[in-house]
Specification:
The protein is mainly beta. It contains no helices and 4 strands.
Length: 56
């Protein structure tokens, strides 16, 4: 059974840099990626791919 509140893989929110306020929610491994993550994902409001930056 999975443990809750695991600090090694915290839940992070990815906010669109397109200014729409759209977010994705995912988990990341803090040991492999200690810095803030930037992923290029689809923004359905803009209907195109933009960078999504992690906010804590």
């Amino acid at each position: 059974m999975a443990r809750r509140g695991n600090e090694l893989r915290p839940i992070v929110k990815l906010r669109s840099t397109g200014g729409t306020g759209f977010t994705y929610v995912t988990r990341k491994n803090r040991r492999n990626d200690p810095d803030r993550t930037v992923l290029r994902k689809f923004d359905p409001v803009l209907r195109r791919h933009v960078d999504f930056k992690e906010e804590r």
